[in-house]
Task: structure prediction
Amino acid sequence: MVEQSEMRGSSDLRLPLLAAAVFAVLGAAWFFAAAAWAPHERLLYGVSAGFFVIVGTISIYAIVQRGVAEHRVMVEDLLGREQRSVQRRKRLDILWRFAGSELADFSAHATAALEVSTRVLGLEYGEAAHVEGNALVCDLFHSETPSERPQTRDVATAAGRHPIEAGKTVSYSDLNESGVRAYIATPFSVGNLQYELGFWSASPREAGFDDDDLEYVQVLAGFFAGLFRQRRQEEELAHLALFDALTGLANRQHLLDRLRSSIAAHRRRDAQCALLVIDLNRFKQVNDVLGHAAGDAALMEIAERLKNVLRAEDSLARIGSDRFAVITSLMKSPAEVVALAERLRDASVEPLKIEDHTFHISSSVGISVFPTDGVDPKSMLDHAGAAANRAKEEGSGRYKFYNNEISQSVRSRQELFNDLRNAVNLGEFALHFQPQVDLRTGATVGAEALLRWQHGRRGMVDPSAFVPAAEENGLMVPIGTWVLQQALLQWRPLVDFSPSLHLGINVSARQFSDPDFYELLSDAIEAARVAPDSIVIEITETVAMANPAATRATLLRCKERGLMVALDDFGTLYSSLAYLKTLPIDIVKIDKSFVDGLPHDHFDGAIVHAVISLADALGCSIVAEGVETREQAQWLAEAGCQSAQGFLYSKGLPYDEFVNWMRRERTPAV
Result:
């Protein structure tokens, strides 16, 4: 480009220089010719020739001066271009250094970039601001001179020059508006927010703004867009770490942080605060009937109800799938907390209408008070949760303060959890076998394997005490695996008494939902070398309802393997008939609660008759549980029930005793 400019400048001067030289040469030639041909006219010709020479010389001088001036301009232009190129490289180098730097945080990074950029542009003020409605809200501000940070202002006040309204970079070198003389700004966006990056000065900019200035501000806007986008992502991650994604409430961790601050504040004031845990009752029905999307909608509705009954100083959080917690500050008396617990309970008990269904959800509330029930966040939350559990055990819709009785229960429960973890290794678990008999012949047709725990100090622990604890703490999967393996190994020799004997093995909800359940079951069958058609997998209605599609798929695999399937505790839940129709069930077990009233309770009798008729229609056999009297056995046999188990025949027997039972076959006939 430089060479082309020089060539163009020299060619522009070539023609006039040539003309002037020719003019001067012609004048000189004229003089000498006139002197030779007309000597008497020499003076006249000399004057005229001199005129031509002088004119030519002056023309040559003028042309040379013009060339020198144009060359000077060209050199100055080249120097200006080089200076702008250096300035451009310097500006880009500054941006590059900022992009590659690792400053402490967004504020330090962005503020430093704004400060340097304001100085690079030779202006006094720099600002990054975003639009909220019709207002422009300042996010970052820098001033080269002492100046207050600009307040929120109306975007319309900048009409005609505002970059966001114009949709492009704008610049004014002598604006003279509201004390602003030089102004350059450009818009950029982050998500759905519109931003302005602007620089201005109170004095005019004599040189104006050139293309390099506009380009620099646009590139700078891209850099700031990246910074703001990164800040937004960090804020979203921080929000997810502290708030529940569904309800927007504080999560468990954030609750503990708030509770820690509240405890510190109340300790300084020598005051009390309380933590309330709200446990929803029967909420699982919503998920079971309508699915998890409807359950999420129900949780959001309940969260809104709870928020509406709180005071401004109370803090609400969601700490579990169906558990909420409230921190109440400056508690004046227990009556104040009771009033709040009742408001929370009443807010959740109102009928919940979702997709043309009405659900009656209630809640149980547990309360712990600082400092009497705990002096740190974790203990207060644990104690309020324990009180909520006790309130739930005593009946839905109750509230309960944490007390010594609950404290002892919590300690005992924790000891139970710890002992459960060691029970398998210590060999404290054992299997008992309860015989199942044919109601017509009295012959033993099978047995149910029952888990028993012989604790070193406690003695025999009732399954109703430790099975829920094992489920709650995730121990039921390893314990259930042990039961499967031991039951099949012990059953193999018993089949020699009769090939038609079958063994029922209970499978818990956690165990059945384990992805490896079927493989573990198959491996146990192979290891024991037992015939699959002698094994009955027993599941409860709760297991069947947890995930109907997955339940059906797993049961079909068991059926393909040759195993039988029994539905235990039949009739205790509202959806029994629907699930019995869709699941591949071979055996229906009538729950003890319906057998207890026989033969005198007509309501129980009607239910049992209905179950037997339905099972017959579906091709299922019937086993009655909890048979304790001959009258019950007689009634069941006449009603069409095939088999029974219960204390009338035998309790659960240790393995050796069950072997002797099989040898004696002293089952009383009906």
Residues 42-100 form the longest helix (59 residues).
